[in-house]
């Protein structure tokens, strides 16, 4: 039987080869997307990592009432008005299109007179939206998917409960909608092209659409590449190796898939560059720094620098809280106050060896209300005579007048 | 205006010096892309060395004297090149529109990155806390101020020493210091400008190295553009201030030089380039020395293993890969000799038992392998590059007995894979595994090197760069 592979075709086969490569790549990409969606529909459930989002009950901020840790969950203790508002600080962000329903497992739902699910999004950080939760047996539920405000990237979630007595909450869980082919294909595409923006951990890796991504773009690209190359092998039947007319097909397939998978990143770069032009363009150094989320720290550091003599002065930056936001504040101030000689530490001055602290050193306290940093009779713990130079937005700057302590 | 002129000097004089060093040292036929890419890293390495040395000797960080030295070196190299080397034969320029299209596409990504870096203040945590803190202090006082650990600072009365808890080397901090001293003041955004340059130079280097190994213009340009379009590499260019692009750049330069030597090209010229790249790998990050040793070890093994019987070599390779997978999966079944006197010797219950020493738990290895594989092949960071590198490495391994370059690639993958698994399973790096703080950045460096090597390792061991022209 005559070999009818591309080897025998005349010169124009190079163009045909390229078209073949592009077509096989596109077909493979569509096959991977539709195949994944079909598999999920056939199973009737999502993959484990995308089945639900269980909100951690560990790090909670009570805006009204009180939150207590109990076995198996948290206890919401109402204030005098019978209200408890709990915000879940450690909930990961996620695109709204991934989850459409919320359930709150509550020990005694009969106690709850009213309850709302709360959320805020990246696109409108100043607005908090809410939706009433309906009782369903031992659960409180809401369908978020039909709410027009449930969109964008959800940055913060919480619950508000009106109750006469404390209630125990066992779990807060977000659920995706019923898996349909149309929704899944749309979701896979949105997740590939999801614009995550630059954030604090971007340098460590791009998260894309978060931990519930159905089909990560790296996996999709690899599968499509494999399927595309197999398809090319079946069509071109290289014997024993790829001919010069056939090789452009491989290159074309690889380039096509590379372009498809790299487009979201290119879009991200352009969007962020345009945002940088809009936010920072035409501004000087100080004005740019004041646009940043930590502008308060920068302004505080500038105020300190304007108040004290030129560098190098020794400054001790103190606050409570060894890790997390407090650690960030101290270390960022350490950087902003440079080239002054800064020690950023939590707790008091006492752990610093006696004799190191001298008259003329400065102390910047960030938690002025904490008992460890009490200022009275012209002294701060552990008994250093100080002069307060300024108080600004919860921070106080002192100059040590004498190195004597208790 | 004068400060922006000095800023241009700070950015361009290292590149100019490095380019002319490469031009006079390397063979005539080496591509412009390789010379530009290599010149960037060599130039900045030399600049920081001069900057630091003068700072140590004189006690002051000088800018104009260092620029004068760089320009003098560049001028001398240009003179030597013109005076003593035969001119390159004139060749008619032909426009390859495919290459133009690829370069234009890259430019569409490079331009917004440079604009973003120009405007955006310093952003990532480690950048401002570990490197830029020191750079800010050095540039203000224009001297190499002493930095000691915080604990030591709290216990000693050394009023002139500053403190930091981060133990990274000085190289990255000095790059920002150089730019700040050149500009005349600290700028949160302008000190980051060398980073998009390193990113661009890495792309030029990878494409140029492929060209040296016999690829025609279009595939070589595509190899370079793959680096430009790699998301996590682009992130490191935009959110500047980290060391990874520099480690990768020096390592790709080093391995590109070694590849050229394996290609029967001039040992002394390429050896000199490898020598110039070596300090950059070692000082830019703590694990740079491990990368250097593994690359060097893989290089020497690939030279000499051609004398070993193919069958024995195949057995060693198979055994190594099998053992590696066995350990990576956490020793799923026992492989031990059990005696009444000593107990088990070998792998038993997920641990390695050797009489006389405490058992070593292997089972932790399976967790680290899963996380590394997921980060490499599933994340948005690397897209198709991991898959392509894997495929090209397998293709290179198939040619193991026929090509020293293929052996180089295979040994590199085996050794670095094993070393990484060891590091993430049994050292303090394992505590960072889940958080991506360490593993994604480390994988970025490995992938940038691995991709360049696997592309270059496909061609035969011959003077490919002559045949391709």
Number of contiguous helices of chain B = 19
Percentage of residues in DSSP E strands of chain A: 25-35%
Helix share of residues of chain B? 55-70%
Biggest interface and residues each:
A-B, 62 and 64 residues
User: What is the element string of chain A, with H for helices and E for strands?
Assistant: HEEEEEEEEEEEEEHHHHHEHEEEEEE
Using DSSP, what is the number of strands of chain B?
6
Rounded mean pLDDT score of chain B: 85
Q: In angstroms, what is the radius of gyration of chain B?
A: 24 Å
Give the C-alpha Rg of chain A: 30 Å
Low-confidence stretches of chain B: 463-469
Oligomer: heterodimer
Shape of chain B: globular
Number of distinct beta strands of chain A: 20
Average residue-wise pLDDT of chain A: 86
Number of helical regions of chain A: 7
Q: Structural class of the helix and strand makeup of chain A? A: alpha+beta
Major β-sheet profile of chain B: 4 strands, antiparallel
- Report the structural category of chain B: mainly alpha
Question: What's this entry about, in short?
Answer:
The complex is a heterodimer of chains A (406) and B (469). With 406 residues, chain A is α+β, with helices and mostly antiparallel strands. Chain A is 32% helix and 27% strand.
Name the features.
heterodimer, A: 406 residues, alpha+beta, seven-stranded antiparallel beta sheet, seven-stranded mixed beta sheet, 7 helices, 20 strands, B: mainly alpha, four-stranded antiparallel beta sheet, 6 strands, 67% helix, 5% strand, globular
How would you describe this protein?
- The complex is a heterodimer of chains A (406) and B (469).
- Chain A has 406 residues and is an alpha+beta fold.
- Helix content of chain A is 32%, strand content 27%.
- Chain A contains seven helices and 20 strands.
- Chain A has helices at residues 13-43, 181-192, 217-236, 247-280, 285-289, 295-307, 325-337, and strands spanning 53-55, 60-64, 66-70, 73-77, 83-88, 94-95, 101-106, 112-121, 129-132, 134-136, 139-143, 153-163, 167-175, 314-319, 341-346, 362-365, 375-376, 379-380, 384-392, 395-400.
- In chain A, strands 1, 3, 4, 7, 10, 11 and 13 form a seven-stranded antiparallel sheet that branches. In chain A, strands 15-14-16-20-19-18-17 form a seven-stranded mixed sheet, with helices on one face. In chain A, strands 2, 5, 6, 8, 9 and 12 form a six-stranded antiparallel sheet that branches.
- In chain A, strand 18 and strand 19 form a beta hairpin.
- In chain A, helix 1 (13-43) crosses helix 4 (247-280).
- Chain A is flat.
- Chain B has 469 residues and is mainly α.
- Chain B contains 19 helices and six strands.
- Chain B has helices spanning 2-25, 32-58, 64-84, 97-119, 125-141, 150-155, 171-183, 194-212, 217-228, 231-238, 244-262, 267-284, 288-304, 310-328, 364-377, 385-398, 404-426, 439-456, 464-467; strands at 147-148, 162-163, 335-339, 343-348, 351-354, 357-361.
- A four-stranded antiparallel sheet of chain B has the order 3-4-5-6, with no helix packed on it. A two-stranded parallel sheet of chain B has the order 1-2.
- In chain B, a hairpin with a 2-residue loop joins strand 4 and strand 5 (351-354).
- At the A-B interface, helix 3, helix 4, helix 5, helix 7 and strand 15 of A face helix 4, helix 5, helix 6, strand 2 and helix 9 of B.
């Amino acid at each position: 039987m005559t070999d009818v592979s591309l080897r025998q075709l005349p010169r124009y086969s190079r163009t045909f080869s390229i078209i073949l490569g592009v077509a096989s790549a596109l077909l493979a990409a569509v096959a991977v997307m539709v195949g994944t969606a079909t598999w999920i529909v056939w199973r009737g459930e999502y993959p484990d990592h995308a089945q639900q989002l269980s909100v951690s009950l560990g790090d909670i901020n009570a805006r009204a009432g009180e939150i207590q840790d109990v076995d198996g969950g948290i206890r919401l203790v109402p204030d005098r008005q019978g209200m408890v508002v709990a915000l879940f600080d450690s909930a990961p962000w996620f695109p709204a299109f991934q989850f459409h329903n919320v359930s709150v497992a509550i020990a005694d739902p009969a106690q709850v007179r009213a309850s709302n699910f709360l959320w805020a999004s990246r696109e409108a950080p100043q607005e908090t939206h809410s939706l009433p939760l309906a009782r369903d047996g031992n659960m409180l539920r809401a369908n978020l998917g039909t709410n027009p405000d449930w969109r964008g990237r959800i940055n913060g979630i919480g619950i508000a409960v009106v109750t006469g007595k404390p209630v125990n909450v066992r779990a807060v869980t977000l659920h995706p909608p019923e898996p349909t082919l149309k929704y899944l294909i749309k979701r896979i595409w949105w997740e590939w092209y999801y614009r995550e923006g630059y954030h604090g951990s971007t340098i460590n890796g791009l998260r894309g659409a978060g931990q519930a991504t159905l089909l990560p773009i790296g996996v999709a690209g690899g599968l499509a590449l494999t399927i595309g190359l197999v398809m090319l092998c079946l069509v071109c039947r290289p014997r024993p190796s790829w001919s010069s007319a056939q090789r452009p097909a491989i290159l074309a397939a690889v380039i096509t898939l590379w372009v498809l998978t790299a487009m979201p990143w290119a879009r991200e770069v352009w969007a962020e560059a345009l945002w940088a032009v809009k936010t920072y363009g035409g501004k000087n150094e100080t004005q740019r720094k004041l646009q940043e989320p930590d502008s308060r720290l920068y302004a505080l550091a500038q105020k300190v620098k304007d108040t004290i003599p030129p560098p190098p002065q020794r400054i001790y930056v103190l606050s409570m809280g060894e890790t997390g936001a407090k650690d960030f504040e101290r270390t960022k101030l350490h950087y902003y106050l440079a080239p002054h000689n800064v020690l950023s530490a939590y707790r008091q001055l006492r752990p610093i060896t006696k004799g190191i602290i001298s008259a003329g050193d400065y102390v910047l306290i960030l938690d002025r209300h904490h008992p460890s940093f009490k200022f009275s009779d012209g002294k701060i713990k552990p008994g250093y005579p100080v002069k307060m130079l300024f108080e600004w937005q919860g921070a106080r700057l002192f100059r040590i007048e004498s190195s004597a302590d208790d | 205006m004068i400060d922006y002129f000095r800023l241009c000097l700070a950015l361009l004089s290292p590149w100019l010096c490095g380019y002319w060093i490469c031009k006079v040292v390397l063979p005539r036929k080496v591509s412009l892309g390789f010379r530009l890419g290599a010149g960037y890293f060599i130039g900045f390495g030399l600049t920081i060395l001069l900057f630091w040395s003068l700072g140590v000797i004189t006690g002051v960080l000088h800018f104009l004297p260092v620029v004068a030295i760089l320009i003098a070196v560049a001028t001398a190299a240009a003179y030597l090149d013109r005076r003593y080397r035969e001119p390159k034969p004139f060749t008619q320029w032909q426009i390859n529109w495919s290459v133009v299209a690829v370069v234009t596409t890259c430019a569409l990504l490079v331009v917004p990155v440079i604009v973003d870096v120009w405007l955006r203040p310093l952003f990532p945590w480690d950048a401002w806390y570990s490197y830029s803190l020191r750079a800010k202090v050095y540039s203000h006082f224009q001297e190499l101020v002493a930095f000691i650990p915080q604990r030591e600072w709290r216990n000693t009365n050394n009023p002139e020493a500053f403190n930091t808890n981060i133990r990274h080397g000085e190289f990255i901090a000095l790059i920002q210091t150089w730019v700040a001293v050149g500009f005349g003041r600290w700028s949160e955004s302008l000190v980051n400008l060398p980073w998009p340059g390193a990113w661009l130079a890495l792309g030029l280097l990878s494409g140029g190295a492929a060209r040296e190994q016999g690829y025609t213009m279009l595939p070589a340009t595509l190899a370079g553009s793959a680096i430009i379009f790699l998301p996590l590499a682009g992130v490191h260019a935009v959110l500047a201030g980290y060391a990874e692009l520099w480690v990768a750049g020096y390592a790709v330069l080093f391995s590109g030089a070694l590849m050229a030597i394996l290609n029967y090209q001039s040992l002394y010229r390429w050896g000199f380039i490898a020598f110039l790249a070596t300090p950059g790998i070692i000082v830019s990050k703590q694990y740079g020395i491990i990368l250097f040793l593994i690359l060097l070890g893989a290089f020497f093994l690939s030279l000499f293993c051609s004398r070993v019987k193919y069958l024995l070599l195949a057995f060693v390779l198979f055994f190594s890969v099998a053992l590696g997978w066995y350990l990576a999966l956490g020793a799923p079944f026992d492989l031990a000799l059990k005696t009444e006197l000593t107990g088990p010797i070998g792998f038993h219950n997920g641990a390695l038992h050797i009489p006389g020493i405490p058992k070593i738990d292997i089972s932790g290895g399976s967790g680290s392998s899963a996380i590394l594989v997921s980060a490499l092949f599933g994340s948005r960071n690397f897209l198709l590059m991991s898959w392509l590198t894997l495929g090209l490495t397998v293709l290179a391994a198939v040619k193991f007995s026929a090509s020293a370059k293929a052996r180089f690639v295979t040994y590199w993958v085996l050794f670095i894979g094993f070393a990484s698994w060891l590091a993430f399973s049994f050292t303090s790096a394992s505590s960072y595994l889940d958080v991506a703080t360490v593993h994604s950045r480390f994988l970025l460096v490995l992938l940038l090197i691995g991709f360049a090597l696997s592309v270059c390792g496909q061609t035969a061991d011959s003077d490919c760069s002559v045949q391709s022209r």
